[in-house]
Specification:
The protein is an all-alpha fold. The protein has helices at residues 2-13, 24-34, 40-52, 60-98, 103-131, 135-150, 155-172.
Length: 173
């Protein structure tokens, strides 16, 4: 099982263009649908937990690995997720820095941005679909996203207001 965990997370790490959140939909598919390590609810709970606690948000991989194969699975997941990409970045960083003024580098950066945004939206949609069961939940999610996107309040006040609204809606429902 450890080798399976390592293989899944190594493959996912190489897909994480634009950051770790880019692989959340595929991580969910692998962990829930393909490998059956977690239920859909467990996955969303693990992901939410790692988003609201201090530390790297992609530590969800350690929780998934732990669920799959205990402590060794958590270690295999972390090594698989961060090892290959860390090695790749370390290996190409000098070349990338030399290409700073290159048209090729600017083109690469410009064309990967839409991919990164799209995968982040896919991740957000996955979590929203798994957790929003009432129209009020969807209204709260969309309002929060609009506030964050508008940059009017800032992320922390928006999170506080969303948490308060969610709590109040839970009292009534």
């Amino acid at each position: 099982m450890i080798w399976k965990v390592l293989a899944v997370f190594t493959a996912l790490s190489l897909l994480a263009l634009g950051g770790g959140s880019a692989i959340i939909p595929e991580l969910q598919r692998q962990a829930v649908l393909e490998q059956h390590w977690l239920s859909d609810r467990q996955f969303v709970d693990f992901y939410a937990l790692t988003q609201v606690t201090p530390g790297p948000s992609m530590m969800v991989v350690a929780l998934v690995g732990f669920q799959a194969a205990g402590t060794s699975g958590a270690l295999a997941a972390v090594i698989g997720m961060f090892g290959p990409t860390g090695l790749l970045v370390f290996t190409v960083r000098n070349t990338w820095n030399r290409l700073r003024a290159s048209r090729w580098r600017r083109l690469m950066e410009r064309t990967t941005r839409p991919f990164a945004v799209g995968t982040m939206l896919a991740s957000a949609t996955l979590v929203a679909q798994s957790t929003n069961h009432r129209p009020l939940d969807w209204a709260l999610t969309l309002t929060t996203a609009a506030l964050v996107g508008s940059k009017r309040l800032g992320i922390l006040p928006t999170m506080a207001l969303a948490a308060l609204a969610g709590w109040l809606s839970g009292l009534s429902g």
